[in-house]
Amino acid sequence: MIIRGNNLDDKLVIEIGRFSILWNCFERFQCNNACNPTKIKLVSQNIKIDKNKEVQLAQVLNERRSWFGQVISEYVETGLYPGNARQNQEEDRLLMEKFMEQKEEDVRCGCLLVIYRIRNNLMHGLKCIEQLNDQLKLFEAVNGVLETLC
To answer: Residue 67 contacts by C-beta under 8 Å, 6 or more apart in sequence?
Structure first.
């Protein structure tokens, strides 16, 4: 599909559309129309995420991280916070790292914080439309998690 001169995979466009709708539902029904890291910490205590979907998202993130030869902390710092993105608290970054490591039983909060960062990057971050086709698996995995919540 050609959008503003950019050749984007049709599947990607559909997944980004699904992501927008699923995030909207999550923010509306779980965060009372105002999502932020503090709300995510509260919400994560009372929701269930399909463990297989959670693991799949962590695997996709780790695959992307390996493309750049980064350790998890570097990927969280530069991949999830690209350019001059506003940095969250250290605690939030550590929760995201624990999610990617998948070493702890309960990593729901880190999972949701990662999705929140992906949302922020899509809407407010770098505007590299030509790199979106490389993110199909990422959006499919994120949508898998969000579908279990909505």
So the answer is: none
DSSP letter for each residue of the chain: -EETTEE--HHHHHHHHHHHHHHHHHHHHHHTT---HHHHHHHTTS----HHHHHHHHHHHHHHHHHTT--HHHIIIIISS-TTPPP--HHHHHHHHHHHHT-SS--HHHHHHHHHHHHHHHHHS---GGGGGGGHHHHHHHHHHHHHH-
Amino acid letter, residue 92: D
pTM value surpassing 0.90: yes
pLDDT tens string 22-76 = 999 999 999 999 999 999 999 999 999 999 999 999 999 999 999 989 999 999 9
